């Protein structure tokens, strides 16, 4: 390749991806004009750059344009496609489908021909295998997910995986298999592995390490790997592909030395053999995006190391990045890509310009030094990407990296190579299982002493930047040792001196979490934390609550308004994962002896913030669940918040004897259903801000149009978790500002000084 072209190529690729993701007006015209100018001036490099930008922008735009139109949400579609993945999760089987044909069952609907990939839930389906072709009747919806600060962004994950719709398989008509799966060596290998007498965990880790079957790792495996900072070791990564390439290269050069002793250094075929070995390993792993990325990085690395008309290390780095993004533009949104390239960049920085180690002692010290310097850089990068830090990672990786790369991966691959000799294969994998158990026990012991750390939101950025600065301080050659030591001590003080800001007395932070069609409100004062409801539990067993907070949280009080699943579905998860001092609500829905009934008249004060229960009275025992909802009023200074659960209109009127308007923030009763938010209550409370806690595209039509219009007439600024994501208000301390929305910028709220919109 011409010298110096790798960096411009990578920048052109990145520019095209950025323009495709956020296309400005006149993008096509601008690209066409730039191309004409480059052609007129005969700048071949500029022509190539403009074409690259156009190609990448169009690739991203095609993925965006293929997403399911909103008008097809919730209607019956006939879909044919090949199964890319089949994962059983309790009662639900999750299917990844490569779409070959899609059409609405009713001809007057919009077409869905541009769908390429969808994700489906199937309940009690017939046996299915990856690679089979099926016909389904499905109901889909556009890609979406819950939006909460600091929580997993499912919508972003769908985007970077190229999934253009999600939904479920209709049981009638029943799914129909169109053709069996073609021969797939990877599936055959997994089937062979299933018949081996291996313990469960070593079997899962062997599948992940050698076949890239990371979907076989359990939640417990992922938790242990994340907490110990060893996730990169248990899936197909650049380390493993490079290891295979390196072993094959050494063997090839050894053979060349025997065959041509005088010319073995000039032999080219060992390098090609190493490339073939790395490619075969990545193909065996299914060539999924992580394996493809690792293969490209390994191939470019072989070219750089060969020295034959090869680019330098940094040119190779930019070239590998450009090729990865050219083949898979959506990988630009995958944190793993940037973590991988950051690690390689750090390795180049650490080794470039330094002499090669000599002898075993020199190489061992070089590996230890590299790991110690790489640890803070990767710790800071992971902290920025995932807002967590594994303190055990530097020590664990000193042992785990050579153990996995030097023993576990070779043993696993050797077992596959010797599969025709069952006894030898079993011996290799028996030793693999023993070493895996030992490594797992080591990880568990280290994590018990140094558990995963989740910093406060205000600490994440300063701690991450301090770790990155520390890595650069010791990685850049030529700096004075005394300067490094003094700067290291100063950087070490950052986590100790930096304190996350706390609420002052007389203020309360209210966050209405996005939990779909349900309710979960978190209230914080300076030293007090309360939950109102716990959100739903879905048919798959998943509760949105489990994705909201990292680690173990402590709550002073949890109020469960009533026993419906969309309000009390997360109670069991909350009690299992977190610490709760006291529950208020229906005893049948709550655990343990810390439960007290929710009765009107109870009040308490924390940090100059007043809490008061307005409903239900003691006489409400015979009422339906909704009408026995706990109603909570929170008062701080001139601001008031009212949470009324699913209380109906008839009993709302009785509250008017206890509360009057105006109210600063009101949570719409029963998710904005027409059974709540009666005219008398709306006129009496005149809320400044109104929140509907609803699921996007929910089947109930919440909020009801008449409720939306009712609140519009009194001038309420209306918000919806289904559209805006989680909403965070801060009451007290002066004038009430609008909320922070997790989906900032999509819409500014209805009737908030903008064009009003009605519920569809």
UniProtKB/TrEMBL annotation:
Name the SMART domains for this protein.
Lactamase_B
Q: Which UniProt keywords apply?
A: Cell membrane, Membrane, Transmembrane, Transmembrane helix
State whether keyword Heme applies: no
Q: Which Pfam families match?
A: Competence (PF03772), DUF4131 (PF13567), Lactamase_B (PF00753)
Q: Where in the cell is it found?
A: Cell membrane
Q: Answer yes or no on keyword Phosphoprotein.
A: no
**Principal subcellular localisation of the protein:** membrane
Topological category with respect to the lipid bilayer: Multi-pass membrane protein
Q: Taking every annotated instance into account, which residue ranges of this chain make up the domain Metallo-beta-lactamase?
A: 517-696
Q: Where are the transmembrane segments?
A: 233-256, 268-287, 331-351, 363-386, 392-409, 416-433
Checking InterPro entries in the record gives:
ComA-like_MBL, ComEC_N, Competence_ComEC/Rec2, Competence_DNA_uptake, DUF4131, Metallo-B-lactamas, RibonucZ/Hydroxyglut_hydro
Instruction: Identify the CDD domains for this entry.
Output: ComA-like_MBL-fold (cd07731)
What is the protein name given in its UniProt record? DNA internalization-related competence protein ComEC/Rec2
